[in-house]
User: What shape does this take?
Amino acid sequence: LRKIVQARKEKMENAHNTKKRIPEALLFASGSGLDPHIDLEAAYFQIDRIVKARKLDPEKGRQEIKKLIDANTEHDLFFINRPYVNTLLLNLSLDEHFNQERFKEGI
Assistant: This one.
């Protein structure tokens, strides 16, 4: 397990070009490995990578992605009363929002 977590940590550091602390939610998998939920810290941590991957204006992209994360934040996942983000719904929202933006811009 230690080797797996270390490998994930190194992969995240490379993908995000950072030595900042990686949120635990991005290092450990759920029991099934299929959990579509991550905590807010993990979602916010990935904003810059999403901006880069979607080739967005850095400042505007960060603001828009944060709004979409907040719009897809829910509470009361089972018995835990912490906010979490449904990554499936967030990704669908990102696709819809930024595809509409590109259509408006003629891209």
Summary: The mean pLDDT is 85.
